[in-house]
Design brief:
Largest sheet: 5 strands, antiparallel
Number of strands: 18
Structural class: alpha+beta
Distance between the termini: 128 Å
Strand order of the largest sheet: 4-3-7-6-5
Radius of gyration: 44 Å
Helix content: 40-55%
Oligomer: single chain
């Protein structure tokens, strides 16, 4: 039942008196004493008016090294001796709060008899005993381990912050798929301020083809490197190598993602791959690319389809080199490649396979139309070489000899196709010379 203390003013909140209907046989006081002695917390009771501690269990000896009688013999021993000086103000405010509101909670540092510091979480209640006296009953729980864990987490986060800010890689901390922290490198590389970045998800800073992969990695906690396309808020794209690791951030499971910009590396790799398969002078495919493409087209050839090849050789190229120099010859080869590219379909690749030799592949021609299309393409090549070429200050005229081969009619292998087309080209060259 609740009762109001007649000594308190009209604004003092009512104090609860609780009667617990429990029936015991034997010594109830002995039972309660044993119970309070075994509990893993300091239990105490004090006079609310004098603050004099009148009961404290033996746990105070285990935690702080003080005898229970030390608490009882010296007034305000707890607040003036045990409470850490830096926390005394908060502790005294809690003492006042329990008188005013009937309950208080405070976490503070206690200093043991040998100078050791113990973190205690205190809960105190105001009550009235059977004689009408105001009493404060409290429970002090050791929370040192929790405080140490929190301090270690803060230190870990601070170390992470210092390291990430010193890193040139973009560092992101995710919880539940959303950003909770980024470093300055992320802001510089993606265009967001650290405040604007909070709450962003992978869709906001990864390209669509990479966002799904990033979400899957975050959701399943997958480690290991993977590559993604990052998108600056302006829309500019760059390649990144991503590494992710699980950690704890403010006590919550989080994922740290480190993004290393590999755009320059990818571009160098792309250039190297391009150079490995393209002629450096004319930019059309080289002999390696031709061999691979021919093998691939032969493997994919279906019934009712024809693969054709046009083997082209410039007439008079050596004379241009001898008269006008190698620079003029190089210019002529570039212009020749351009003219060949202008007469083919987008599906017809052009290759430079020798000094002044080029090959055009005509893949997947319908069997019924193959000969007509090949003859038409030969005629287009001859016409496009009819006009003269401007090579520096000179204007030169060169012809072209064209030989063709078709699979399966002229052979089923790459060697057979190349040999037949080459022979046909030389036959055309001889015929052209005899015409002159």
């Amino acid at each position: 039942m609740d009762a109001t203390n007649p000594r308190e003013g009209p604004h003092t909140p009512p104090i609860r008196r609780v009667t617990v209907p429990i029936s015991f046989t034997g010594d109830i006081a002995g039972f309660l004493f044993d119970l309070l002695s075994d509990i893993e917390a300091i239990v105490w009771e004090a006079d609310a008016d004098t603050r004099a501690v009148e009961f404290v269990n033996d746990r105070v000896l285990d935690l702080l090294g003080y005898e229970p009688m030390d608490m009882i013999a010296v007034p305000r021993f707890w607040s003036e001796t045990i409470v850490h000086p830096d926390d005394r103000e908060a502790y005294l405010a809690a003492e006042a709060e329990v008188i005013r509101a009937g309950v208080s909670r405070v976490t503070y540092r206690a200093v043991g008899s040998e100078g050791q510091v113990v973190w205690l979480s205190s809960v105190a209640h105001l009550s009235i005993d059977q004689e009408g006296r105001r009493r404060i009953r409290g429970l002090e729980t050791d929370v040192t381990a929790m405080k140490r864990a929190e301090a270690q987490a803060r230190e870990s986060e601070e170390r992470f912050r210092l390291l990430s800010e010193a890193s040139r890689d973009a560092v992101i901390v995710h919880t539940r798929g959303a950003i909770v922290e980024v470093n300055q490198a992320f802001c510089d590389q993606f265009g967001w301020t650290s405040e604007e970045a909070l709450g962003l998800g992978p869709d906001d800073y990864f390209a669509p083809e990479s966002a799904a992969l990033a979400r899957e990695r975050l959701a399943h906690g997958t480690t290991g490197a993977y590559e993604v396309v990052g998108v600056h808020r302006s829309g500019a794209r760059r390649w990144y190598a991503a590494q992710s690791q699980e950690t704890r951030y403010h006590g919550e499971v989080a994922r740290v993602v480190v993004l290393t910009d590999i755009t320059d590396l990818r571009e160098r790799e792309a250039r190297a791959l391009h150079d490995a398969h393209h002629d450096l002078l004319t930019s059309v495919g080289n002999r390696t690319a031709f061999d691979r493409r021919l093998d691939a087209e032969l493997a994919d050839l279906r019934p009712g389809e024809v693969l054709a090849a046009l083997y082209c050789d410039l007439n008079g190229f050596k004379g241009v080199n001898d008269v006008h120099g190698h620079a003029a010859g190089d210019s002529l080869l570039r212009l020749a490649a351009q003219r060949l590219g202008s007469v083919v379909r987008t599906s017809d690749p052009v290759f430079r396979v020798g000094g002044d030799e080029f090959v055009i592949l005509l893949p997947r021609l319908p069997d019924a139309d193959a000969e007509r299309i090949v003859a038409l393409m030969q005629e287009r090549v001859l016409r496009v070489f009819a006009p003269s070429f401007s090579v520096g200050p000179a204007s030169v005229t060169v012809g072209v000899a064209v030989g063709s081969a078709m699979c399966p009619r002229d052979g089923l292998t790459a060697d057979a196709i190349v040999r037949h087309a080459d022979m046909a080209m030389y036959a055309h060259k001889r015929a052209t010379k005899s015409d002159r």
